[in-house]
Amino acid sequence: MRKIILMALILLLFFGFGCGPETGETGVDYRKGTQGIVMNFMQDMPPAKMYDNMLIDLVVEIKNKGAYPQPTSITGWAIITTPGTKGIGTLYLSGFDNTLIVGMPKQISIPKLEGKSPYNPVGGYDVVSFRGNIINFDSRNIDSYNANFLVTSCYKYETIASQTVCVDPEPYSTKEKTKVCTIPPSYSLSGGQGAPVTVTKIEETVLSNKIQFKIYIKNLGDGKIIDKNRLNIDCPYLLDYTNLDKVYVSGRVSGYSLSCKPNNPINLINGEGSVICTIPKPAMSKSAYTTPLQVKLEYGYSSSIQKSVEILNTP
Fold first, then answer.
1. Cis link prior to 83 (omega < 30° from 0)?
2. What is the CATH superfamily name and number for domain 37-156+302-312?
3. What averages of pLDDT result for each successive group of 10 residues across the chain (315 residues)?
């Protein structure tokens, strides 16, 4: 009888440890999607119709639906701030007559929002408020005014794309040998990498003394790519061909840093482009092997939302 009870206790302990709840830190594919900082106007703040002589409060919800920034083992959450701001970027308010609506700030820092991670699969969230006052319309003989509020975000962001590639120093050898992999025509990366700018495809070519990777880049978000070094100078009111569609590319594979041409920043055309990066042929290996290729894209990004509010003269 004692043996039966002992065996039952052992089985209970075994199944208790084996079937416990998951922590949620594994199996989370947080580097998916094509969004970064996403904005929405909070419902009825302000309402669609208002009267003069009232306080107006424009409330914007901000979500980080991408995978940047990530936590580090040294500092915890690695919140990267854009120089000259208190957060990861800036929101700019425009589109309305500031002689009729007074006191509203023209810009507010985007709060420090962590990106999606195994510890936070939904990303950071916060709200900001643009608050002001509507003047007395009688003083201007105004019956009504349709105020258009345009909120534009300008922020720094990064994309990390990782793809397992086949490194074969001698892909054209006539000697018969068993290989663990062969180089395909291309590597396709779908679904995004948790950022609005993504690596969509990689083509690998083995040359006489180096291995070449052609990396295809595309803007899959709903905003504009901006030169990260011009973000606080030109965004959002001075954007043109000199600062738009510029991405900085770096990466590593098999212990080598990628050497890329053209030089940074890479110019995209209509949100698309490519760069050719190389590494030396690995000297210590004569056979094919698989290894991760990691590509980092750095850029500024900007998107906008708009809301109209009808303001009436108080009866």
1. no
2. Immunoglobulins (2.60.40.10)
3. 47 41 52 95 95 96 94 44 58 97 96 90 95 95 96 97 92 74 94 96 94 98 96 95 97 95 95 96 83 97 98 94
